Amino acid sequence: MLAPMATTVSERFRTGSSRRVPSRAAPPPRVGIGRAAVVVGVLGLVAVVVLGVTSEASADLHARGGVAMFLGGMLGLVGMYLALVQLLLISRIPHLERILGQDGLVRWHRRVGPWPIVLLSAHAIVITIGFAQTARTGVLHELGDFLSAYPDMLAAVVGLGLMLMAGVASVGALRRRMRRETWWVLHLYMYLALALSFAHVLALGPTFVGHPFTQVVWALVWASTAGVVLTYRFALPVARSLRHRLRVAEVHQEAPGIVSVICTGRHLDRLRISGGQFFAWRFLARGLWWQAHPYTVSALPRPPYLRITVRKLGDHSAAVSRLRPGTRIAIEGPYGAVTSEARLHEKVVLVAGGIGITSIRAVLEDLPKKAQPIVIVRAPEESQLVLREEMAALVRKVGGTLHELVGTRASTGGARKFLRQLVPDLAQRDVYVCGPEGFVHDVVDAARALGVHRRCVHYEVYQW
Ligand SMILES: Cc1cc2nc3c(=O)[nH]c(=O)nc-3n(C[C@H](O)[C@H](O)[C@H](O)COP(=O)(O)OP(=O)(O)OC[C@H]3O[C@@H](n4cnc5c(N)ncnc54)[C@H](O)[C@@H]3O)c2cc1C
Question: What are the structural domains, with CATH classification, of the chain?
């Protein structure tokens, strides 16, 4: 049963906040750290190539099968290195997350993604040819030998198979036909695939056999990557969930199909979060505990309360409206780079498509008066303009302007039209936009076309 519309607790979120305690905002993004990470990544790649080249004796290269063995080894080394970079990109390292946001990191993860799989598949083929040439035997015969007689090769082959499966499942057309949860489980096999392939490199790779120093360095690189993943994806979320002990306090309806969930927790005054950030929420209730979904905090915290606002879309978001008070919650985050701290100009324009209002509402609350925000909210019908009074009150408070565009895209016009009409000084503002993919990209493209610099456009896609 949903609670009635306005209760004392939900009332707290309706008024524009808040005594913003400065220490509570998320630490600002430090672009220098991002640049340093890129330099380290490139240097690592160079080191791997140099290591591969220098460990190859020229006599081996000229021996029968030597060229294929050398090429195969290099493909394997570079492929493995890029696979580790892939892991780091989605390990939620806070410093990187604050610069690129989860969106940006996932985009890079996808860009790099095909390379390890292609390189490691090529490695398997070329190295088998090399071994077959050396042993003066057929490729299939050599493959049989690999599986039966070489240490750790069976595990490596199974690992490559799992990697291929996870890679194929991520190909756009296939992925779109799959339930997200199925794709996610298949994707998890990537971790197993990498673990299975680790040992054969040390046991057979010419760069490592008889070279204890490179063995130690390689093992340390792997151990550090695993440590980073375990720290940021598991240990930190568990520690944060235990510290704040969030529970559902109440669920109330904002509009047809849209609810707000107010949670209560401990030490929320110490939670470092900026307006516009989100958590991955794991509601510890039957049928929900095993999946974590991202929902943006739809207002700055009012300790001991925190609020999200959720639109029913599929199984998880529908189940949110049925949560019972007292349900425990585990959180991962806060994540997200669409925050007030990201802006490069004083002034901003905030654009929300549908439920993207959650992020825009919270960013608005975090802005100083000099931001003079122009806020544009798009919804297909008036009943879907949620958090409407709060938005109006906040916009008034910071001396901004609010425009509500109700109707289909055909009736309200595309982003280029409304940005041109409603924001005369667009190029002197940072643009924030949140909502469904098509809407966000329309606004981003229009803003760029109308002269806004790439780094002044901040966006979060809610469904992709
Ligand atoms: C950074 C971010 C912030 C978000 N904030 C809000 C919010 O404040 N309020 C709100 O109502 N919605 C928000 N969403 C969208 C919300 O996460 C999805 O609507 C929800 O996860 C859908 O799950 P489902 O099981 O109900 O639907 P499904 O039918 O399983 O999924 C519907 C679509 O939602 C997306 N989705 C599903 N699971 C995930 C996931 N784990 N991660 C990313 N996308 C997923 C996919 O595009 C999928 O096609 C946000 C999404 C992101 C990425």
Answer: 31-209 (no CATH), 240-335 (2.40.30.10), 340-461 (3.40.50.80)
